[in-house]
């Protein structure tokens, strides 16, 4: 059943990203890119170079807000295949399935707004995102596939056209959030935004859980898990900094319609294996991309405006953690994040420790209790959850 469903949905139309265009400040779509994180880095560098040549300057938050507003002015086309909306599918059965799962009675944009308002209220803030003192801009680059995608610690990033969600979000946050002691929360917030979008989409749509134990969780620091298996990951990069703002890029990849025999590892999974029927690939991608854009904007704007909500964020991550309370194996970065980078861009890993993940700390680090009772605090490293004995 899964194979038949994925074949039908894979051939359905790619969609117009209508929801995403309303949720994000600017949007870039490509059939193929080397890396969507790299697309954003080049776009920001090109925009800054153009401004310098013209003898002008603009704050980094304005650069991010208008990043893809004029795609012709961004010299990234040479390395990518920028495409317009797909004309549609030639498969009537796939079109019929897409139409069946596209619920006309659901206003997805309004639901994303309601979810954001409810989250603000839960954090003790006024439920109006526009009332926040700091407004974080969000632009997004989306590709059907990427040829040089990479994950955290320099790992390869599996993806396949029509099966994977591949998007990178450029945001501009106050500089102190990205280079100070709170920077660890940025990846955590991106993970929570992904859970927001997945939860809202699967609650609002006609998809039903195939497993009653289905629950989206986060594995510290950057993986999205579903029933104890990796559904996707997040790569956070500091892209640019000016006097007031920092541009941060979140690359987010999810397995949507990957068949079991194509999963990259035995510990990974795919959304179609746990929920059915799903919307078409294009529709699902659009809704998820829009939901993440809205959640990122609201959560980051709230954090920038009210840093004291870190306690609320900590509670959320603790509640949604797949890591806490479990035995873990942590391989620490050799010599710290800066000293642990090899010439090929991969991170050098050093000491290995094993223990029980005890807590997420105020700076988003992880505390692990070793067998002898001592505790270690991990800020950067590769943390795997070990199987139950």
From TrEMBL:
InterPro entries xref list: aa-tRNA-synth_II/BPL/LPL, BPL_LPL_catalytic
GO annotations of cellular component type: cytoplasm
Residues spanning the membrane: none
Any one GO molecular function term: biotin--[biotin carboxyl-carrier protein] ligase activity
Domain BPL/LPL catalytic per the UniProt entry, residue ranges: 110-300
Protein origin, superkingdom: Bacteria
The protein's name in its UniProt record: BPL/LPL catalytic domain-containing protein
